[in-house]
Amino acid sequence: MNDSGHRILLGRVLGALGLRGEVRIESWTEPRDAIFRYQPWTLRDAQGNERACSGVRGRDTGKHVLAIFPEAADRDAAEALTGLEIHVPRSALPPPAPGEYYWADLEGLRVRTVEGVDLGRVSHLFSTGANDVLVARDDERERMIPFVQPQYVTAIDLEQGLVTVDWDPEF
Known about the structure:
171 residues, mainly beta, Elongation Factor Tu (Ef-tu), domain 3, SH3 type barrels, 2 domains, 42% strand, elongated
């Protein structure tokens, strides 16, 4: 299991919207506007520079998640935020409900079939309209496995660092 003291990426600033300093945010929280509950944030730029940020207000419009940063009073200031990643400490998030998992806790776990075939490690997960998808990667290939329990993902053992899947290794 990942160390509970590390930071988790919850979203990123996509770009400015309008003239008064609003920005569009890509949020990976459920619901999407829950990202505003986990402040203060650590903002990280593409070069790895970080800074703390709090007091961000926002809302989910259905089409976008919009935010107003305290330091972004106009469009130019908002555009300067574009591309920043939004991180929070893992400890800031509530514990997941039984049988639920934060994606960050699954990344890096070994993936093995019910027959014992090693498929590599969880590289990342992503969401589709139908279900989430677990991406298992080894030295040779990448496999996209629907994150559907218990049909394809039969067991998750965070203590052992293992995800067991009912999946054809040749697929």
